[in-house]
Amino acid sequence: MAKAVGIDLGTTNSVISVMEGGRPEVIVNAEGARTTPSVVAYKGDERLVGQIARRQAALNPGATLFEVKRFIGRRWDEVREEANRSPFKVKEGPGGSVRIEVNGQDLAPEQVSAEVLRKMVADASAKLGTSIKDVVITVPAYFDNSQREATRQAGEIAGLNVLRVINEPTAAALAYGLERKGNETILVFDLGGGTFDVTILELGDGVFEVKSTSGDTHLGGADFDQRVVDWLAGEFQKEHNFDLRKDKQALQRLIEASEKAKIDLSSASETTISLPFITFDPETRTPMHLERTLTRAKFEELTADLLRRVREPVQRALDDAKLTASGIDEVILVGGSTRIPAVKRIVQDIIGKTPNESVNPDEAVALGAAVQAGIIQGDSSLGDIVLVDVTPLTMGVEVKGGMIAPMITRNTTVPAKKTEIYTTAENNQPGVEINVLQGERPMASDNKSLGRFKLEGIPPMPAGRPQIEVTFDIDANGILNVSAREKTSGKEASIRIENTTTLDRGDVDRMVQEAEQNAAADKQRREKVEKRNNLDSLRVQALGQIEENASAPQDAKDKLKAAADEAEEAVRSDDDAQIAGAQKRLEEELRTFMTANQAGQEGGQPQAGAQGQPKADDDVIDADFKPAE
Ligand code: ADP
Ligand code: MG
Question: SUPFAM superfamilies recorded for this chain (predicted)?
Answer without folding.
Answer: Actin-like ATPase domain (SSF53067), Heat shock protein 70kD (HSP70), peptide-binding domain (SSF100920)
